Amino acid sequence: MSVPGEIMIKENDQVVLRREKKLQIFQVKVKRQLFLDKFKFMLDGIIGHPFGTTFELKDGQLVKADPPVTAETGKEVEESCSGKDNRELKADDSNQKLTQQDIESMKQKGVTGQEIIQQLVEHSDTFKAKTEFSQAKYLKKKRKKHVFIVTVLKPTARLLIEMLYSKAPDKICNLRVDSLSQILWYGNVHSGINVAVVDSCRGLVVGSILQRMGGCGKIVQLYPGNDLNRYVVDYFDFPKEYKDILFSFPLNKLMDLKSNSKPLTDSSADAVVTPSVAEQMCDMSSHPNDSSLTKLDVEQSCDDTSSNTNGAPVTKTLDVDTGEKLSVENNDSSMDTNDNNASQSKGDHSKLLEKSVKKETEDLHTQSDISTGKKGRKKTEKSEEEKQKEQQQKSRQLEAAKSILLERNIDCLIVASKYHPTPIVMNLLEFMALSRPVVVYSQYKEPLVDCYTALKKSGLAIKLKLTETWFREYQVLPARTHPTMQMTGTGGYLLTFMVVQKR
Prior knowledge:
It is a single chain. The chain is α/β, with parallel strands linked by helices and 503 residues long. The chain has two domains: 1-154, Vcp-like ATPase, Chain A, domain 2 (Roll), CATH 3.10.330.20; 157-266 and 391-499, 3-Layer(aba) Sandwich (Rossmann fold). The protein has 15 helices and 16 strands. The protein has helices spanning 100-108, 113-122, 132-146, 157-167, 177-186, 204-213, 232-235, 240-243, 254-259, 275-281, 323-346, 348-372, 374-406, 421-428, 446-458, and strands at 14-19, 22-27, 33-36, 39-42, 54-58, 61-64, 149-153, 193-199, 217-223, 246-250, 412-416, 437-442, 461-468, 474-475, 482-483, 493-499. The strands form four sheets. Strands 10-9-8-11-12-16-13 form a seven-stranded mixed beta sheet, with helices on both faces. The protein has a five-stranded antiparallel beta sheet with strand order 2-1-7-5-6, with helices on one face. Strands 3-4 form a two-stranded antiparallel sheet.
């Protein structure tokens, strides 16, 4: 029976499976085979159970463990004796009388992993002579290989950041769970406020803010160019009312918003930015290894600025979206002219060959049009309608974000970006209300030092504080308590301050 208030697992839900210290997220689908640590299973058996339930694998299906057990509390060995030391023991395959064929036959008969480990212990000649620590280590190794026990958890910010950090910390800017908690605390993130956020952590910071606000308030995510990457937000499995408060706005249209000289549209052709704005949004000149930029495409990463052979920076004055295409078209046109000159020198034979090939391709296209008929036209019309709906939705999102920013009543600004934070912060301060907190996160200290100096000179900030979060993790076990040997070196740096009016 389910307890009132418990959240039950349904189909298409996002769930986090915890197996010992490993975390993996899956979407619940019926009759869908999944893999985790070389174990093949299906999630049909977890539907209808509450989050937090422990399951074990039986015949490819996850069955509720009754009574609940974990991989650390197995009952393979009861009242077993242990030796004083392992000096007389020899690591040899002959110590185990149970062969691999016997184990495979037991698995085919449906023997559980706990029973297999019990048989391995009974057929081992050296298990009882091992020390207590060696026995625990041996059992842990065998459980990892033969026993599949998982706990189904609801995705939260803590679980997701642990999962992503263990796999690829560079992709979330080495953001750690203690650093994320300080970002939310310094930013005073709570329900019913207006938050502006610049997130380069694949939407992890945005999802954490959404989870804390609970669908009340407004969030504007600002992103460089077309780099709106927040797929981690889908992992949280938020309801629709949570996502309705999330809006997006491109940074390359920020100066147009300040001047308010022309209406903001979602067409990429209108995203042309003046060179001065491009310098502000992607200024990396404070780093000694980077060239000073004069004119730069806003959508190009600041780390990818190139230089010519003389060491001078390469400038780009073309359109944001059509500039590179124009250069490619010019190259293609020059190549076409060379090809035409070469074809004229070859004579009339090449012209006749081109005509015949062109005629054959036209015949093939006409035959394909006849065979598809109305179906092909319906698919084309549907795709155009979908594009128009998406365009209209983006335009509405853009206008909504514009109105929120123009109110100049942002209660909190959070910047966790891989780009240099100084131009981003300085250009967003005027949209904030006074006496509101700002939190800037970076995995490196030098960009935050530059931002600290710029804010000191501007006179727009008080209570400036630059801190480093260093988290020491301990292993706490009987007679084996010590710091974890493979702990992280740093959790990044934080710059916090309050916005004030300049005198």
